[in-house]
Each structure stands twice: as C-alpha cells, then as structure tokens.
Amino acid sequence: MAEWVRDLEFPRLDVPITVDAVYTVAPAGPFPAARGDSLYLSNLDDMVGSRLFTPTVYFYPPEKGRVQGVGKIFRRALADVLVPYYPLSGRLRETREGKLEVFFGPDQGALMVEARSSLRLADLGDLRVPNPAWAPLIYRFKDEGPYQVVHMPLVIAQLTTFVCGGFCLGLRVCHCLCDGLGAMQFVDAWATLARVGPGGRIAPSPCWDREFFRPRVPPRVEFPHAEFASVEEGSSLGFILRETKLVQKCYSVGEEFRTRLKRLAQTDGEPARTGFDALAAHVWRSWVRAIEIRPLDYELRLTFSVNVRPKLRAPPVKEGFYGNALCVACATSTAAALAGGTLAAAAGRVREARVAVTEEYVRSTVDYVEAYRPTRLEFAGKLSITQWTRFSMYESSDFGWGRPLYAGPIDLTPTPQMCVFLPDGDGGSLVVWICLPEYATAKFGECLSQLN
C-alpha cells in the first residue's frame, strides 16, 4: 500500500475492569427548572438518527503524584458544569405524539462511575487507533438496548485508572441533547472547571433555545428528502451485510495524498470541490469497488451530516447553542457510475448534496419530521460518513492533565454501513475508519491508496 495511505492495525485484547463506585452527580447549585418542569426538544434533536448515545474515550498518560483524587476532581467539576448545562441533568420521556422532551423528575443527575484496570495504558495497543476492545472503558447498563435513551441519564461517565498511573475517561452523551459541536462545547466547559475550579468562567455561555427550530404551521415540506426515503433493497448489499463477516478497519491518510485527491476532484468550469467532497467521493467509490455491488444500475446513496449554523442568517443561531444543528445531505449515484466513473464526477455529486442544504432545506427538514416523524433508520443502498475532524476533540478535553493521547469513538457497531473521518492527534494525517465485509478489506485498501 502506498506510503501516504497506511493500514492501522489494532490488537484483539481483553480489558479487565473492576467498578469501585457509582455516583449520581446532581448540579452543584440552583438552576432554572423545578421538579415536574419539561423542556422542548426540536425536530432536529428528535430525528430517528439522533436517538442514541455518542460514546467517546479520552486517554491521559501517567503524571507523577497526580492520579490521586482524580475521581473527586472530575465529579466536582461535573456537578459544577451541570448548573449552566442543567438540561443534561434531566431525563427524556415520550409525549403522546411520540415526540421526546426533557423532563425533571425524582431521578435526576448525571452518572459517574469510578473503575480500575490491572492493565497499563501500554497494554492497550496503539492509542491513535480506535479499538472496539476498549468497550469496557465505557459504562453500559446490563439490560440496556442499543438505541435506548428514554429514562436514561443523559451524561454517563466512567473514569478508569490503570496500574501505570494513567487513566481514561469513557463518556456517553445523549445525541438528542447535543450534536458533535455541542458535545465538545460541554466537554470544554467541564474541562475548564476541572482545571480552574468552580469559580472559573466558561465560554461561550450555553444557550438552550431549541424553539429556534420549531416547525411551521402548517408544515411545508418543499424538498424530496431522499435521506429519509424508504428504498427497497434491490442490490446484493443487503445480503452481503447480513450473511458475511464484517470487520472494522482503520487507515491513516496523509495530508499530501488528500491534497492530490482534492486536485483530481476538480473540473474546469465547475464550482470547486472541497477536501471533504474529494475524500468522501474517493471512499464511496473504493467501497463500491471493493464490495462489488450488483446490479450495476442500482442507485446507491451516500449520506453525511452538514452543520447548518453557518447557513442560518435570518435570524442566526445564537452563540453558545449546543443542540442539534445538523441536516443530513444525500448524494445518489448508480454502482456503475461510481465503480467506472471519475473521481471528479463522484465529488461533484457529493458537493451538490452538500450545498443543497440551505436555510430553506433546514426548515423543510424540520417540517418533514413534524409531518411524518420517521421511526426507523433506512439503510438500503446506503453508506453514511461522519466527519469528526471538525470537532476540537483534543483541544477541548484538557482537564488539567494536558491533551489526551487519544480522543474519539471506539466502535462503529451497531451500524455496519458507516465510515468515520477522525483527526490524528499528531497533526496532518486523517484516519478513515470503516466497517467492511472481511472479503473486501484487501481490495478496499488497494482502491483507497490509488489516485485515479
């Protein structure tokens, strides 16, 4: 494989964990909600794809004399940050219409777990590469369903110490309350209060304002919204994903390679494609070629989230807003056009889908969810890409122990048709993390490393 695209291996291992304590962490002071109160969630918060927790881990190296009392520091700062971020201390419930809302009842607060492992951080392998074997570092309830959010703590944190003196924060934040940018705003505020104490100033001040995305009356759906469409699985993809062994693979993609991809993705006389357009198109084409989807005239979909904050001008989203301000863009193409066509053509389709997410499209999405309230994720013919490179994962998570060695997710399941772009903590490279049928991994790596 070319030097600018490297296959990153992660070891298969067991991570033994002993849970020492489980705490309910309530806000440290008064906040503007009483028992029995509820808060409105927008339709962007309550889309079917947001009804889940986003799990992440943060590894911190040993620092002499500073591992003692780490749990107390994290708990105290969590209680402090839950005052301005008080909605995260509530719970979700369904109204009669099936819509979610935040409510404040007798069971409140975040969950904080303190645990220890007999391993050293060095035993976990390359900490730059997300590893599903790290799952014990993120707390889950024994009887918890894969998409369970109702009546759950909305912040679930596990602090695990290792025998070397290093430690790990495993964090789950409910996606219904925060998108990726909002979650990192919350983590940054928590980290600030851990570093400087309860008198510290957090910036920006958190803004709830979910009413900004209220639907119009009556709802006006003005676009076809292919991202929500129920499509009959008429290709070999469904059978392949059901009947073959799936594996998770990681590839480091260098900056020079991405620069060349972007250059190849341009077409004279057409609008410029971004680096994301080029890489997303390249991964999509490599995925189709490696899996060998049939029939070739079957129309496939590539979906990805678009941050709509910069697109909303009349009025703009308020500073400090930490809710979901995302819409799902959807590019379409036949398997034949992807497998046999040019990178520039595929990148053009990605760009068209991205720029189609306008202010009007956002309002139409809100109204679509209001009118139809989809209750299931549609996967037919689809690959979904999530771009974590835009999140300040490493910069936002200094709790007083410096930048983490790794900050990010660890597992792509339970959604097999998923690809994630991750920042490399060291700088210029980017990590492409994808779930593939085992038989297709060699060909995918080969296609990914080729500039054509």
From TrEMBL:
One of its GO terms (molecular function) is acyltransferase activity, transferring groups other than amino-acyl groups. Pfam families: Transferase. Transmembrane segments: none annotated. Signal peptide: none annotated. Belongs to the plant acyltransferase family. This is Omega-hydroxypalmitate O-feruloyl transferase. It comes from Aristolochia fimbriata. The lineage of its organism: Eukaryota, Viridiplantae, Streptophyta, Embryophyta, Tracheophyta.
